[in-house]
Design goal:
This protein is an alpha/beta fold. It contains 11 helices and 8 strands. It has a domain of about 180 residues: 3-Layer(aba) Sandwich (Rossmann fold). The protein is globular.
Length: about 270
Amino acid sequence: MQQTFKALEQQSWNERAATYDAVSSRITNFGIAPLLDVAGVGPGQKLLDVCCGTGLVAVRALDRGADVVGIDISEEMVAAATAKRLRATFRTGDAEALPFPDAVFDRVICNFGLFHVAEPDRAIAEAARVLRHGGRYAFTTWCGPEVSPLFRIIPAAIQAYGVMDVGLPPGPPPFRLADRAESTRVMMANRFMDVVTSNMTAFLEWPLASVIEFIEQGTVRAAVILRAQRPEARALIDSDIKAKLAPYAVDGVLRLPMPAIVVSGTRT
């Protein structure tokens, strides 16, 4: 039986939990402050951090005085967050079926997690369900290859020298919610009003010489596709990716723009 999209993501983030803070967070950390700002996170609020990872968002939310609960499908991520001994509660759970009663949180946030969820519309509906009326929900998501060099260069190199079809389980279009009209429509369909979308730019600052290692450790689908290539094709792909990224490097260090959007709305 083929592995499901959800199982692939869960397994992959379990494998990456030990390196997340040193690798993936180099780009996802850029979303934390904008996310907390647009959600209006402040003292005394009960906050749910969906796809909480290793608790990096929770740290900043606690600094603002929020009462934080974090949830993630990856057991290893939850263990890493718990090991930090923060004044927060972390538990394993599914963004598409949150293990909480209706209307118990003042704020719900999700930092780049919907990019890795099998049914993002269901996750947004669940966020609405557990929010109190008047509560705020906000999420960040990456923009697609039309504006993002990394997400353009990787598949172009694979298509040029290898194969894209390596038996990945089917999943949702990864950049669908980066379309402002579509994310607004989905939010409004799930009982959110005053929907606001805004640009957010992260940067990947990483040695060009080891950028392939970043892709393998910091992504899921791209890493699986790369690892499935024949050795001779893989060498050409890796070389092409580095060559195309070289213009974004200074003194051998990338400063690669990673465009994203922040979406927020108020629960009616």
